[in-house]
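REVIEWER CHECKLIST
Item 1: Sequence provided? yes
Item 2: Single chain? yes
Item 3: Sequence as submitted:
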Amino acid sequence: MTDSPRSIAEIDKALPSGEDQERFSGYGLMGMPFASGHYLAMRHFPASSLGAGYDSVWHRDPAGEWVIYSSLSPEASCARYFGSALEDQRVEHISITWTGPSAFTVEVPDKLMWDLELGRSVATSAMTGLGRMLPAALWRSPAVLSLMSRVAGPALGVGRVRLSGTSPNGQWFRANPRMLWTVESSRARIDGIDIGPPGPLAEQARLGDFWLPQRGMFVVGEAYFEQYDPARHRAARPGS
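Item 4: Structure as written out by the authors:
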């Protein structure tokens, strides 16, 4: 595979089918733990069944409190599913700038500057090959996703993995990571302060059934969620 992460990431993403569910397509840094106790993740979903695409940055501080910054309102972005587990959700301008075939920078002005360099491993290459060949019907199979979850954790060295489950707000989710890269280097500054080198957390972080990886992992793929029902699901903004 000679395609670079940048060349693949910049291809326009089509919205996957499935009228009875909420759907997103794009790429993201599933998560990056830091030895200091900070945790960062980002999403770039240019295709969304809710309307306009959006970018988001997730930050957990060493005390374990989560904030999600998004380019759209909480009701149209990640907080729609994770808001009840957050300390705060904020609408901010977010820029993602590719600086090379495998390098990019994420910025939330006056808050975050995050530089990343991606690479390949035997495990990510194998799983990308599988992801490209797997028929769409199997990506919808709970049994297949459960098997992939059990294999992916040890193979990738990321700790526990759940590709399907229930989000903090109560909707079920299904993740389809079709292409993967490792993070070879990462440097982040929050409020102008370098948060130190990457490193696994003492206890793996999770939000509902969604477990955050214990090493940096970049993914291109799709995400599916149960349609929001105000009678059964928590609101994107708790208390609203």
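Item 5: Key structural point noted by reviewer: The chain is about 15% helix and 40% strand.
Item 6: Recommendation: ____
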